[in-house]
Amino acid sequence: MEQLIAALRQCGSSEDYYHFQQDLLAKVLAVQTHRAGCRRVVKLLGQGKRLPLDAPELRSGEEATDPETWELEVDVCERVDRQLRSIADALAWRVFNFDRRLIIALSRNQHPGPMVGKPGLIAERAFVTGSWRSDRRFVLLHDLTTCLSIGDATSFREVGNEYEAYLHEIKSDPNRRESKQLRRLKAAEEAIRSGGPLPGDLDGHIVPLDLPYKTHVKVLADALDLAHDRGVQGIKVPGGRAIVASDLIRGYERWSEQEFIDQTAEEHHRALRRAQILGVGHLVYARSDDLVARSPTMPPWAIYPLSPTWCARLIADYAMYFVTMSSESVQAALGNVGLSTEWMLDRDQTTVQPTQVVLHVDNGARRVGLQWAEVQRGLLLEMADMPTWAAGVAQLLERGDPGYRPWPSFAEEWKVWK
Questions:
Q1: Are strands 138-141 and 204-212 parallel, antiparallel or unpaired?
Q2: pTM of the full predicted structure?
Q3: Which 3 state secondary structure label does DSSP give 117?
């Protein structure tokens, strides 16, 4: 993954992207094929049948006649598949110039799942190679990603130093048309171009903001570099937040598992004290581990402004971080831009669902509820600049149409990730 991330960052032409995607596609299909074979063995052993002669080679070296061995192999393949496809997500963000509006609009379908065995895969691969050989156009395969689920592909045509993007539905039978998919494709295009309703069952539309996006994700690089030497490191983050980063390889070299947990807890306590939020308001936090390719609108680790090594370690959970914030910090920031707030989480609540409203915000004319997914992504994992984020919420209340969930689109977001 480290090599893939480094190679992706070196891509600068349609030819580079074409060959990179072909290499990544081969890796993903190999993992998915292996997983499908292992699932077949699990099914056969579960029926009391013998291990088939054409069973895949086990990577674990465990007892081949034990169904649990094959179930473990299936689980590991699923995780590796997500890890590799998160690199494809980074490819998508990159060729779309890190424009989150495109990701939001094209992620509003249920993802079709593995590519292996999909009826249209042959036609889609033929379209990719045919477009390259005949027109020298790079075509991004949506199913290779986990963040794009509307349309089958996007082709890019060079116009001077820029690119024009075209969405495609690719069918094995050219006479067959799925009107529902085409309607969603057109709705996604309109949502991006003119702010129309986003496709999908949940009402929503993109609200452009005239505020450049600012974050403090560079603090993460400092924390990880220090954790590489010390095992774990806590740092305060502007806006009443604290980050704790862990290098698991270094940590387990230094301590036992329990000692590592204790060291992390002590470092967290020190970071909260430095951020001056220890015992202040209701503390909430978000962790980075096991999030790879879980949310289509969350920037993939591979585009974070970190070295390929750290990006790969975050993807594989060889490194992790968590960010803690006080409810008083976010409410104070919103109060500074003239908004009134009501914190909705109970202090004894241990888990929060992505769609649960954690904060109500009111500007006197309109009231909206901020869901945990937005707080988790923007204020915690991405460490958005608190005053910028609060000003964005104020603009959302002014510009958002009643009846729709507003998706904020900050200006110049590409500067954060590029």
A1: unpaired
A2: 0.94
A3: coil
